[in-house]
C-alpha cells in the first residue's frame, strides 16, 4: 500500500467513531431546516482549516441550504466528493450512536453520515497536499432522501474530472467493492377523486377512492419484474384515504417506488394505470425522476490504478438504490459511488456501521481520490 494512504487512513479511522457519534446525535430527517443547519455547523467544524465553506440553495424548496466545502490547490485536476446529511428516520424514532459488539448503531449511521465522516477526513488529509489538485470539493445536501424537484447542482460542478460519492460501501468476495452501476428511480404519485357518502345509510351513493387506489396499487405492482429485461421493481409504499370510519372515502393518494435500468421503463408504468375506476377519477404522475448510472467502462482504468495504490483489488459492483452520484454520471464520466463504510439496515432505526470498516474504507477512498488526481 502507498505509505501516505496507510498513514492518512489510520488518522481518519482514529477520529471517525467520535465524529460519527457527533453527527448521528443530530436527528436530521429530510425537510427539517433547523436540523440541517445543525449538521452543516458540525461538518463545517470538522472541515480542514484551509477550506472555504459556502451554503448554496437546495434543490428542494423550503429546505435549508446545502453546503459546499472547497479546497483550492496548485495542481490541475478537480474532484468532487458527494454526501447527504438528511435521513429517513423521524425525530420520534431517532437513536443516538451506540457500540453493539462490532457495530456502531444509530440513525443515519450508514446512510450516510458514516460516509460523510470519511469524506471530511479525506479533505483534511488532502489539505496537506495542495500540489495534487486544482480543486477538491465536498457537496453535502439535505434533501437526498425525499427530493421531488430536479437536482440543481450539476451545472455548479461542470468541468470536474471525477465524482466520488460516499454512500455505504460494498462487500465483495474478491476485494473492496464500489458502485459503478445504479438503477434509475422514480416515484409515482396517484391522486383519487371520488365522492363521499354515509357508509351505513347510503354507501352506494359514494365513489370509493380507497378502492380505486387499491386497484391502482395492484396495477403498479403487476409490472414488478426484477428478473425481466429492465430489472424493474414496482412497489406501492404509501396509501392515504378516508377521514372517518363511517364515511365512504371520497379522495386519497398513493405513492409507489419504482426502479429500473432506465427511466423509460419507469415512465411506461403510467400507461398501465387507468384514468377511472368505478366512477373515481385517477390522476397519475411521475413526481421524482432519478437517472440511472452506468460507469463501468469509463471507471475501469481508475479502479485499476487505485487498486495498485491500495495494494488490494477494488471491485466494480451494481446497486439498486438511487444516489446523487447518478445525477453527475452523465456529465462526469469518472463517477464512482459506495466509498462509505460498510454496514446494514439502512432506512431502519437499527441501522449500523461496522466499526472496523471505517479504517479499510478510508484507505479505499484515499486511493480512489489519489488515482483520480493523476
UniProtKB/TrEMBL annotation:
Top-level taxon in the UniProt lineage: Bacteria
GO MF terms held by the record: hydrolase activity; metal ion binding
Keywords, ordered alphabetically: Hydrolase, Metal-binding
Designated name of the protein: M20/M25/M40 family metallo-hydrolase
Domain Peptidase M20 dimerisation: from-to ranges: 182-273
Keyword Metal-binding among record annotations: yes
Pfam families in the record: M20_dimer, Peptidase_M20
Amino acid at each position: 500500500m502507498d505509505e501516505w494512504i496507510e498513514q492518512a487512513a489510520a488518522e481518519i479511522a482514529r477520529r471517525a467513531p467520535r465524529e460519527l457519534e457527533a453527527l448521528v446525535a443530530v436527528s436530521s430527517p429530510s425537510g427539517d431546516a433547523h436540523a440541517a443547519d445543525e449538521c452543516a455547523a458540525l461538518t463545517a467544524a470538522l472541515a480542514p482549516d484551509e477550506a472555504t465553506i459556502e451554503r448554496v440553495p437546495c434543490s428542494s424548496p423550503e429546505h435549508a441550504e446545502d453546503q459546499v466545502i472547497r479546497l483550492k490547490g496548485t495542481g490541475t485536476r478537480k474532484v468532487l466528493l458527494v454526501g447527504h446529511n438528511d435521513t429517513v428516520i423521524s425525530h420520534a424514532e431517532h437513536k443516538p450512536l451506540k457500540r453493539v459488539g462490532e457495530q456502531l448503531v444509530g440513525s443515519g449511521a450508514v446512510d450516510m453520515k458514516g460516509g460523510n465522516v470519511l469524506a471530511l477526513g479525506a479533505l483534511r488529509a488532502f489539505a496537506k497536499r495542495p500540489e495534487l489538485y486544482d480543486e477538491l470539493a465536498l457537496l453535502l445536501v439535505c434533501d437526498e432522501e425525499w427530493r421531488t424537484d430536479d437536482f440543481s447542482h450539476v451545472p455548479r460542478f461542470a468541468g470536474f474530472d471525477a465524482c466520488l460519492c460516499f454512500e455505504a460501501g460494498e462487500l465483495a468476495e474478491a476485494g473492496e467493492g464500489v458502485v459503478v452501476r445504479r438503477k434509475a428511480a422514480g416515484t409515482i404519485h396517484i391522486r383519487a377523486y371520488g365522492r363521499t357518502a354515509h357508509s351505513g345509510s347510503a354507501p352506494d351513493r359514494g365513489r370509493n377512492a380507497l378502492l380505486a387506489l387499491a386497484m391502482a396499487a395492484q396495477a403498479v405492482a403487476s409490472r414488478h419484474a426484477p428478473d425481466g429485461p429492465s430489472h424493474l421493481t414496482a412497489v406501492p409504499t404509501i396509501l392515504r384515504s378516508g377521514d372517518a370510519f363511517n364515511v365512504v372515502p371520497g379522495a386519497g393518494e398513493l405513492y409507489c417506488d419504482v426502479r429500473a435500468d432506465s427511466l423509460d421503463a419507469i415512465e411506461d408504468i403510467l400507461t398501465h394505470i387507468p384514468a377511472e375506476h368505478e366512477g373515481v377519477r385517477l390522476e397519475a404522475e411521475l413526481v421524482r425522476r432519478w437517472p440511472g448510472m452506468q460507469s463501468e467502462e469509463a471507471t475501469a482504468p481508475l479502479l485499476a490504478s487505485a487498486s495498485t495504490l491500495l495494494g488490494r483489488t477494488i471491485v466494480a459492483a451494481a446497486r439498486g438504490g438511487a444516489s446523487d452520484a447518478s445525477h453527475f454520471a452523465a456529465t462526469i464520466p469518472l463517477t464512482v459511488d459506495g466509498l462509505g463504510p460498510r454496514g446494514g439496515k439502512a432506512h431502519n432505526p437499527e441501522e449500523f456501521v461496522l466499526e472496523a470498516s471505517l479504517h479499510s474504507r478510508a484507505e479505499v477512498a484515499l486511493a480512489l481520490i489519489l488515482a483520480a488526481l493523476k
